[in-house]
Amino acid sequence: MSETNTSMKTSEFLLEIRSEEIPARFQERASQDLKRLAEATLKDSGLSWNALRTFVTPRRLALVIDGLPLTQPDRREERKGPRVDAPDKAIEGFCRSVGLSWDQLDQQETPKGTFYIATLEHKGAQTADVLGTMITGILADFPWPKSMRSGTGQARWVRPIKGLVALFDGQVVPVAHEGLTAGAVTKGHRFMGSGAEFSVENFADYQNKLQQNFVILDWADRRDRIAKGLATVGQNKGLTVAEDPGLLDEVTGLVEWPVVIMGDMETKFLELPAEVIRTTMRSHQKYFTVLDAKGKLAPHFVTVANIEAEDGGQAIARGNARVLAARLNDAAYFWHKDIGKPLALNQDDLRRVTFAGDITLHARTSWIERLAPAIAKSIGADDDKVVRAAQLSKCDLVTGTVGEFPELQGVMGRYIATYQGHDPEVCDALRDQYRPKGDEAATMPKVSAAVALADKLTHLAYFFATDQKPTGSKDPFALRRAAIGTLRIILDNDLRLSLNGLIAAGHVAAPQPDQWQEAAYELQGFFLDRLKVFWRDAGFAHDHIDAVLATGDDDLVRLQARLVALGAFLKTDDGENLLAGAKRALNILSAEENKDEAFTPDPDASVLADPADQAFLTALATAEPQVQTALEAEDFAAAMTALAGLRGPVDQFFEAVMVNDPQPDIRLNRLKLLSRLRVLLYRVADFSQLQG
Considering its fold, how many domains does the chain have in total? Predict the structure, then answer.
């Protein structure tokens, strides 16, 4: 199929879909989906363009495309028909299908015979017609996460659509949708705009008139305006706004004309835990917290209004302060009630709250109490403190404060325990049991590590034991996150643990302990898969990972040190060349062993008289104790250095002798020599897994 461009003139297309407020969390994805759908339609239609941009505000989704041709390119299509000697009915049927007469067909010779060919000329459609079809498709099939119908119509959109702008080459693209007709008029800001519709001629005119009507169309421009306001709003008072990129992104999607306003908070609320204040401001009110010169919370807040008030925002600030005070008063009530009751007394309440199925939080706590002391013993944590932290680990989940602020689980446990005089390490463990969160470091005290590992391992064990494992992309119980968290705690804190031993101890969370062995085996595989992903994300090569895991070592700290040393060694000339020799040796052994032969690593030196054989034997005898000493000291770099001494003798061996010598004794002992090399290499890594 070929194309012919029938028009060199290009023009601009503008689309605006104006609606009621689009939730901020949907906006970025909506902008991306609009771009994707438009590009797909243009490509399928054979239309080219110079630039395509999308825009989103709380009340509009817009698209502008520059450099569109006025018509589709003409297309020439060739369709292969039946052979020229085919029955007449077959040829006539082909003619009907392509709309041509018999004498309009061409013939084409091929190695399989001569066939009829229909050459079809397709006149390019008007681009405006293609765009009209595109708009209709976008309105009908847009992939909103949630959508709704409005009025009596059947079409769905995230919120009711209020207007459509569709202009191509200065002309309206005729599109009708649920009683609306596309035109060239739109509206500005809901409150600050003129209130009347205004017409637009093109994108530049559209953007300028929106600006005049208090709408900043570009998301990045709105975000930049807010960021500049946050940076300057408290400077004259020596105050700074706490950085919060996530909240900044969110409020950018809430306003079309952002105005940064600082308000005051009653100082009495500073007695509350800082996280309660921040969470109330951020999650409930979308306010930014303010810090004083010492970096502590100041009795102020910053909000981003969607209106430029005549009084400079004073009334808005007072109104927001009243709302904030009401929420913080509720938080203060719960806080004072919670600290007045010993945290341990909440244990009975845990019997009335289920964790999963009919398993209560009290039972969940009992698993942690049983597993955490065993972990404490392995890592040298204080047993008494670990037991106490395990007992209290879930007690804050039934407090009023966590009921109001679920995201503060653990954090409030630490605050309450601290207020009530518990040991600081116990208090920290109540918070740290839920770490790591996101990309934060997983370093923590040993008491915290013991409780956090017990929490995650029992969580994993229960769901694996009850056959509720992740499937595909579905992981409703966040088991992948729990596994990665476990690995990070072990590695970030250099905890010398047997991973398989930890998994075996997870039987405490199995409803039927006698079936735990199979579940534990599956959980081991799950951990290994997560470990491979974790290490690949950290930049380690997949074959290096497989090589060290094949040794069977389940001390993750030791495995990672081995992995680092192997990677560094293989980047050297000695490492690269030894790998080549090792791969050759291992391939020879594998080929011979496939013949039902086995070769023990004990060659008879008296049979191997060639100097290359003897040099190889001597090099192995020298390297073996060096490697052993280095491994016992966990000095894997030294072990690699010892292996490097084998490079020359291995190369010389393969250059000077033939392994499969005609004399059976020599052949057997050379294969045993290679087997001895394999045993030595395997003590460091399985070189057969390495690519080279």
Answer: 5
Residue 547 belongs to some domain of the structure: no
Residue 418: inside a domain: yes
Residues 265 and 371 in one domain: no
Domain that holds residue 419: 343-539
Question: pLDDT tens across 554-563, in order?
Answer: 999 999 999 9
Three-state DSSP state, 580: helix
The verdict on residue 555 lying in a domain is: no
Phi, psi at 231, each rounded to 5°: -70, -20
Asked whether residue 147 falls in the same domain as residue 203, the answer is: yes
Q: What residues are paired with 149 via a beta bridge?
A: 156
Asked whether residue 590 falls in the same domain as residue 637, the answer is yes
* Residue written as token pair 């689009």: 22
Q: Which two tokens stand for residue 29?
A: 């994805």
Smallest CA-to-CA distance from 264 within 328, 332, 331, 310 is with 328
Domain CATH number, residue 190 = 3.30.70
Residues 101-158 pLDDT 10s: 888 888 988 888 899 988 877 677 889 999 999 999 999 999 999 999 887 677 889 9
Residue 5: per-residue pLDDT: 44
Cα separation, 373 vs 369, whole angstroms: 7
How far apart CA 327 and CA 321 sit, in angstroms, is 10
CA torsion 575-580-584-586 (nearest 10°) is 40
The number of residues in the chain equals 692
Does the pLDDT at position 1 exceed 70?
Answer: no
634's CB contacts (< 8 A; 6+ apart) are 558, 561
pTM over 0.85: no
Domain boundary among 339, 361, 388: 339
Question: Are 437 and 292 in a shared domain?
Answer: no
Short-list 443, 422, 421, 423, CA closest to 432? 443
Provide φ and ψ at 383, rounded to 5°: -65, -45
Instruction: Choose the final residue of a domain: 181, 212, 243.
Output: 212
Q: Tell me the per-residue pLDDT of 292-344, one tens digit each, with 9 for 90 and over.
A: 999 999 999 999 999 999 999 999 999 999 999 999 999 999 999 999 999 99
Query: What are the tens digits of pLDDT across the range 181-209?
Result: 999 999 999 999 888 999 999 999 999 99
